[in-house]
Amino acid sequence: MSHPSSAPRRTGATEVNPEASAWNIANGLTVLRILMVPVFVWLLLHDPAPDGQHLAAWWSFAVFALAAITDRIDGDLARSRNLVTNFGKIADPIADKALIGSALVCLSLVGLLPWWVTVVILARELLITLVRFVVIRYGVMAASRGGKLKTVLQSVAVAFMLMPVEPVVMVGFWIMIAAMVVTVVTGLDYLVDAWRLWTRGRRERPAPQR
């Protein structure tokens, strides 16, 4: 008679290659993205150029766009070249959250985004991150399609709102509202999945030896 495995389930998660070195190009791009965050923040909070051309704003847009592109590239490289490592699986979401989180806070600081939008999105991200840690012994919750859509919408919205062009900023704001709605809905979906994973794991946990 077979017994349920006590190993964590991996729901769609990319498997780690134990032979891949952490010193690879995919992880290098992830680290680069993390290092770009303080540069991006400084540019975004920097005073506009005295000639009125908003050079700092355009530079902040360029840095954010480059960081967002590296997010796509490093993931594709890691999967296509079998370079998925434990470091990358930890560092990549940290880089993503640091970039988007800092962008939301800075946009609120400069008055382009209401604080309640920033608080709702960041609170959801923090809650889901904590939930992932709680249920990780029972399984790994991989990113869903809704979660990926949320990330795309957030990135596009931030990029639009960084451009010092008023009509584009307004479009970005409404994309951000849509991103917030998707963020909340996917957050609730993750909570349901986490609850099912936790309850199933508790049921299947081997009874203590007597």
UniProtKB/TrEMBL annotation:
Gene3D superfamilies listed in its UniProt record: 1.20.120.1760
Entry's localization field: Membrane
Protein's name in the database: CDP-diacylglycerol--glycerol-3-phosphate 3-phosphatidyltransferase
Gene Ontology cellular component annotations, sorted alphabetically: membrane
Taxonomy of the source species: Bacteria, Bacillati, Actinomycetota, Actinomycetes, Micrococcales
Stretch forming the signal peptide: none
Keyword entries, A-Z: Lipid biosynthesis, Lipid metabolism, Membrane, Phospholipid biosynthesis, Phospholipid metabolism, Transferase, Transmembrane, Transmembrane helix
One BP term from GO: glycerophospholipid biosynthetic process
Family note: Belongs to the CDP-alcohol phosphatidyltransferase class-I family.
Mode of membrane association: Multi-pass membrane protein
Top EC class, one word: transferase
PROSITE patterns: CDP_ALCOHOL_P_TRANSF
Organism whose genome encodes this protein: Kytococcus aerolatus
InterPro entries, per database record: CDP-alcohol_PTase-I, CDP-OH_P_trans, CDP-OH_PTrfase_TM_dom, CDP_ALCOHOL_P_TRANSF_CS, Phosphatidylglycerol_P_synth
GO molecular function: CDP-diacylglycerol-glycerol-3-phosphate 3-phosphatidyltransferase activity
EC number(s) stated in the UniProt entry for this protein: 2.7.8.5
Pfam families found in the cross-reference section: CDP-OH_P_transf
Residues passing through the membrane, by range: 21-44, 56-73, 94-115, 171-192
